[in-house]
Amino acid sequence: MDMTRIRDRMVEHHVTRRGIHDQSVIEAMRTVPREKFVPPGSEEFAYEDAPLSIGEGQTISQPFIVALMLEKASLNAGDKVLEVGTGSGYASALISRIARHVYSIERHEKLALQARERFEKLRYRNIDVRVGDGSKGWAKAAPFDAIIVSAGAPEVPTALIEQLNLGGRLIIPVGGSEGQRLKRLTRTSAAAFEEEDLGGVRFVPLIGEDAWTATHPMYTSTAPSLPKTVASEPSSPQDAQGGGMGKIDKLPALPHQHHQEAEIRLTIDDEGDTSRA
């Protein structure tokens, strides 16, 4: 099976034809072998524009939603990027082909370990993976030029806002069971942010101290309010779907929705207390 040809066809039919124009995103999607990020036996389905189960109640996101979030993050070659929700590792791999360094947080240790192994095999050495609460970000590695969150939060977690560099972009689904909106927040000064609405989406919940808890089937909000300095600038809605994340605690299985070159390391627990070479 010619995966290169199938990959090119996926990019043409499910990415560029649907309005993705960022050449760095397009080239990354032509380069990264998506079939390496799906469970064994699912390779032939890797390039369909649909999610695939990766275990732990999570999925690898459809190609279009991954491309959309990366394009809206306006990634540059020198950027340091935080991804909340490692999942299969596919989005982190794409980001690593565009940006300088990627820090990725996943609440499921098994998924984090699998993603790390994939990065090692592909020699993607500018990705650090950590198991922990994604709603708290990665303070020791901050500030970030971009933060991409692959799970829906009730409100924008304050920690993620605070970890943005000046000019930094945060891409995050926000909302509850009544519906989610994909938001882009850009830090314009020390205390001010520009907010844009990128359209309706559906992601699994972001589980964490400053996001959702899993004590109720519809989830319980524990998130703080967004600072009042955010100015709203709505843009044209684009319907999409996406995937999930949270923290390391043992939690009930979540719904099957779309998830999403220095030393690679996997850090367990709070801010790097334990690491695996």
From TrEMBL:
<dbReference type="GO" id="GO:0004719">
    <property type="term" value="F:protein-L-isoaspartate (D-aspartate) O-methyltransferase activity"/>
</dbReference>
<keyword id="KW-0808">Transferase</keyword>
<feature type="compositionally biased region" description="Basic and acidic residues">
    <location>
        <begin position="258"/>
        <end position="277"/>
    </location>
</feature>
<comment type="function">
    <text>Catalyzes the methyl esterification of L-isoaspartyl residues in peptides and proteins that result from spontaneous decomposition of normal L-aspartyl and L-asparaginyl residues. It plays a role in the repair and/or degradation of damaged proteins.</text>
</comment>
<protein>
    <recommendedName>
        <fullName>Protein-L-isoaspartate O-methyltransferase</fullName>
        <ecNumber>2.1.1.77</ecNumber>
    </recommendedName>
</protein>
<dbReference type="Pfam" id="PF01135">
    <property type="entry name" value="PCMT"/>
</dbReference>
<feature type="active site">
    <location>
        <position position="61"/>
    </location>
</feature>
<dbReference type="GO" id="GO:0032259">
    <property type="term" value="P:methylation"/>
</dbReference>
<keyword id="KW-0614">Plasmid</keyword>
<dbReference type="InterPro" id="IPR000682">
    <property type="entry name" value="PCMT"/>
</dbReference>
<keyword id="KW-0963">Cytoplasm</keyword>
<comment type="similarity">
    <text>Belongs to the methyltransferase superfamily. L-isoaspartyl/D-aspartyl protein methyltransferase family.</text>
</comment>
<keyword id="KW-0489">Methyltransferase</keyword>
<dbReference type="InterPro" id="IPR029063">
    <property type="entry name" value="SAM-dependent_MTases_sf"/>
</dbReference>
<feature type="region of interest" description="Disordered">
    <location>
        <begin position="223"/>
        <end position="277"/>
    </location>
</feature>
<keyword id="KW-0949">S-adenosyl-L-methionine</keyword>
